[in-house]
């Protein structure tokens, strides 16, 4: 076993031993402002791998009501939006957006992205969500533009898929 595997295994063992409240506190940031996801996942302990924990949490989201799923999507901030401008993003969202260079947009790029965000929200009724890790701000803007052509149902499912990716990145960072 590598040191990384041992550390992750120890973290999962500790996580699995927590009571429900502590478990939720530890994992509340994995799904943006949605503590109900780890709350409902707690009953599936013990978790022997990050894959198992992630799959359990994603399944909780899949089994949630449409309204809960929509609220989860709407809990995500717009990229380079008012939360970023006001400094009210979660720590995880701040780091993710910074990593994609969204904090370095020129005035023209910022105007384009905010315009695309507005078009997207107008068309679909919820914010554009994408796992930005590994993407440039240009790839992100091009993706918003391309996804504007999708149906509402396709976009709803795309957002949930992207939220699952974001959750995995956050779990990996937490448990590494």
Kindly summarize this structure in a few lines.
By secondary structure, the protein is mostly helical.
Description:
By secondary structure, this protein is mainly alpha-helical. The chain has two domains: 8-71, no CATH class; 77-169, UraD-like (Orthogonal Bundle). The protein has helices at residues 3-17, 20-27, 36-41, 50-63, 66-74, 82-86, 91-99, 107-124, 137-147, 152-175. The radius of gyration is 17 Å and the shape is globular. The two termini are 14 Å apart. The mean pLDDT is 90. This is 2-oxo-4-hydroxy-4-carboxy-5-ureidoimidazoline decarboxylase. Its EC number is 4.1.1.97. It catalyses: 5-hydroxy-2-oxo-4-ureido-2,5-dihydro-1H-imidazole-5-carboxylate + H(+) = (S)-allantoin + CO2.
SSE run: HHHHHHHHHH
Quaternary structure type? single chain
> From the alpha-carbon coordinates, what is the Rg to the nearest angstrom?
17 Å
Main sheet characteristics: none
- Are there runs of 5+ residues with pLDDT below 50, and where? none
Instruction: Quote the average pLDDT.
Output: 90
Strand tally, please?
0
CATH top-level class of the largest domain: Mainly Alpha
Supply the number of structural domains: 2
Beta content comes to: under 5%
Question: Could you estimate the helical fraction of the residues in percent?
Answer: 55-70%
Shape: globular
Structural class: mainly alpha
Q: Per CATH, what is the topology of the largest domain? A: UraD-like
CATH hierarchy: architecture of the largest domain:
Orthogonal Bundle
Number of helices: 10
Full CATH superfamily name of the largest domain: Oxo-4-hydroxy-4-carboxy-5-ureidoimidazoline decarboxylase
Separation of the first and last Cα atoms: 14 Å
């Amino acid at each position: 076993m590598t040191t990384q595997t041992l550390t992750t295994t120890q973290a999962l063992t500790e996580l699995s031993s927590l009571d429900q409240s502590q478990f939720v506190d530890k994992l509340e940031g994995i799904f943006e402002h949605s503590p109900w996801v780890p709350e409902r996942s707690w009953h599936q302990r013990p978790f022997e791998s990050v894959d198992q924990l992630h799959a359990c949490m994603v399944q909780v989201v899949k089994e949630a009501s449409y309204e809960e799923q929509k609220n989860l999507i709407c809990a995500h901030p717009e990229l380079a939006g008012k939360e970023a401008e006001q400094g009210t993003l979660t720590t995880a969202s701040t780091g993710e957006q910074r990593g994609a260079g969204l904090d370095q947009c020129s005035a023209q790029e910022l105007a384009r992205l905010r315009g695309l965000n507005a078009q997207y929200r107008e068309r679909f009724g919820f914010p554009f969500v994408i796992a930005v890790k590994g993407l440039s701000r240009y790839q992100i803007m091009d993706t918003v533009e391309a996804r504007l052509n999708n149906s509402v149902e396709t976009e709803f499912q795309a957002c949930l898929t992207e939220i699952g990716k974001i959750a995995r990145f956050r779990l990996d960072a937490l448990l590494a």
